[in-house]
Structure formats: structure tokens, C-alpha cells
Amino acid sequence: MPLATRILWGLVIGVVAALATLGIGQLYPPFLKFMQDVSGAVFDPFGQVFLRMLFFVVMPLVFSSLASGVTRTTVPCIVRPDPPSRDHPRLQGWALPGARACSELGAGQGTPPSAA
Question: How far apart are CA 107 and CA 109, in angstroms?
Fold first, then answer.
């Protein structure tokens, strides 16, 4: 079965399950409260892990693409008559540590505060 079909089936099954849960919850309200508790206890941690992994991947990609774009720019020759060099080894040397710092910042953004 193609991936798009499986995704569509998952969407349909999720909508049907949500509507069934809400329908049963209208008839029997403790069931709705139970399902909200289950959802918060089971699915919320998976969502948090997914978002942290997403930030862990996306932030270094954004930083490295920005750093790569900066290193490929040329400076207009205003003072010097010779054309500027396209290689900026000092900026390229900072790309990997900068990407690591961004990924650690992104991972730290999702960390919950300590319980007081």
C-alpha cells in the first residue's frame, strides 16, 4: 500500500476515533474525562519527544544554511582594487561549533522547569 494511502487511512481512523470518543463522552461524561487523562498521560510525552527531536534537527540545519550563505557571499570591492576572496576560513571554522550550540539551545528549550 502506498505511503499516501496509509497516511490517509490513519487520518480517517483518527477522526472516527475522536468522533466516537466525543459521542460516548456526551452520553457518559466520566468516559470523556478518562480519555482526556489517558491522552495526557500517554500521548503528551510522545508529542514532547517529537517536538524536541524536530528542534534538534531543524535548528542546526537553519544555522548551517545561514552560515553557508554568509560564507558564499562576496563583499563589494570599495577600498581595495583586488576582488575579494570567496573563501572565508574563519567563518567556516565556526559553522560546526555554532550548529552544535544551536542544537543544544533547541534541546534546552523543551526542557520543563524543575518542580519547586
Answer: 6
